[in-house]
Design goal:
single chain, 203 residues, mainly alpha, 11 helices, globular
Length: 203
């Protein structure tokens, strides 16, 4: 019999959307397969990560269908929460082509969609597009600190990118600062050891 998804994430059914998301992120960082490369527990970590993803997707589907939860994960079944969770996971592991394909297939262009598209553009080094999408996400859901933080950091580093261009040390420092504000950066820098991070100093 499948485990209760809330039990898998270690949260109460009454937990807020932010609490659920926080629990998911912490577990994803802990059990991400990239952190167990060439490790005896690699298969176990992969199974655990699959269970965590399924539990998170199930919770988001239930909340979307029931209209419960708040703010950051609003949306219908087309381009709903399960789709967005899959996009996040693809961006985390650096599968940008798959993430883009999933985003393009989603019709529900809500705040989460714009945030994830901004994250995708940022990973590709398209900073102007990333900034625009982060700002759109923040304006659509001003109560979401994740969106606001990303938009603010992109705005604050705009002059740095303009002055130093690609490859400058100041831009690298700004890159590190911004990456740390994003969910995908949390995974890359803490789980993957910075292997996929475009900033060489992000370890």
């Amino acid at each position: 019999m499948p485990r209760d998804p809330y039990s898998v994430l270690g949260v109460s059914p009454n937990a807020t959307d932010e609490e659920v998301k926080k629990a998911y992120r912490e577990l994803a960082r802990k059990y991400h397969p990239d952190a167990y490369r060439d490790h005896p527990l690699a298969e176990l970590a992969e199974e655990k990560m699959k269970e965590i993803n399924e539990a998170y997707d199930q919770i988001q589907k239930m909340r979307a269908a029931g209209g419960s939860g708040s703010g950051s994960y609003s949306g219908g079944s087309s381009g709903g929460n399960a789709d967005f969770a899959a996009v996040r996971n693809a961006i985390q592991v650096g599968n940008l082509a798959a993430a883009e394909a999933m985003l393009n297939a989603i019709q529900n262009h809500n705040a989460e969609w714009y945030f994830l598209m901004g994250s995708l553009h940022y990973r590709r080094g398209w900073y102007d597009e990333a900034r625009s999408h982060f700002q759109t996400a923040a304006s659509m859901d001003p109560g979401n600190m994740e969106y606001r933080s990303a938009a603010a950091r992109m705005q604050n580093t705009q002059t740095v990118y303009t002055q130093t261009g690609n490859g400058g040390s100041s831009a690298d420092d700004a890159c590190c600062s911004l990456l740390q504000s994003l969910m995908c950066a949390d995974c890359l820098c803490e789980c993957c050891g910075g292997n996929l991070c475009p900033c060489l100093g992000c370890r």
